[in-house]
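Consider a concrete sample entry:
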Amino acid sequence: MTAEPILLLAWLLLAHLVADFVLQPGRMVRAKSAAGSRSLRGLVPHGAVVALCMVPMGLAFGTVGWLTVAVVTVTHALIDRGKVVLTRQAEAAALAAARRRDEPNGGDVTGLGPGWTPWPAALFALDQVAHVGVLAGAWFAVLAGATLEPGFRDIVAGWVAPWDPVAVHEAVLRAVIIAVLLIVNVRAGALFVAALVGSRSVGGAGSAGPVATSAADDGATGRPRRGGWTLWVGPLRGRVEADPVEPEGQPAVTVHHASAPPARLGEAIGILERLIVVTFVLARAEAAIGLVIAAKTLARFRQLDDRDFAEYYLLGTLASVAVAVISGFLAAAVLDTLG
């Protein structure tokens, strides 16, 4: 007995997305991006996570499956490291070119920034294409025709026995496709758009990268911070601080109104935008996608007079919608195989 090919490929894709976008925290990403051998502090744990997510393939196909797990894990780490090195080189080249053009240094950047380059986003996309290519190659060459291990097959057969096997297969495939769409449009899509529209300004003399906000400043306002703490609820931020002026000399607690920093609020809007667009694609209501874009554009209409903002906004919106449309049509094509 062999595994159903389409369901198997969908499972492989889901395992990859979970490892890359659900079980990979920011500190692991930063460790992978370190120079030289220090990157192993991130690559090795991430490789372990990838292998862990691929364990079902080993259990299902035995020796062939475990060999696939090993190949996928090693190639995943190599591809990730290659992307990090190439991205660093692309950003450094873009910033150096901006300095040579004598663009303004420092300051707040409201648009794409003088050191903007599309290469980080392009390499992000190529990285994902390479990972999926390895999985597709393993599926086509090895797993699609491999025989399931007897023990694994008996467990699955016993679990499915009370229900119609065809109905169970369709339900599992639909669930996997929905999970893939959620990860792609909530997490992966947000990271891709951020890589594409991230502002890259030129620092002062000797600066090698984008201008960073001082750790002593509030990243949203640039004002010095006082003692206190910040509470995040989704894209909303509430700040509680000690008031330095109090008649009895005792610090009083002041609760400031919640605010939504533009970057986090924009990310939340982008996620909702992609989920709505995907829903329209799956519902075969593609014409309604224009209403989503029109409503978003109307809210920003006056700001579009600023060319820098217009370029930033249009690039981010088109990239966001493209992610949703492409993933939605691919999912619809897979679901159409169910009849």
In short: Residues 220 and 262 are 8 Å apart (CA to CA). The first helix runs from residue 5 to 22. The two ends are 23 Å apart (CA to CA).
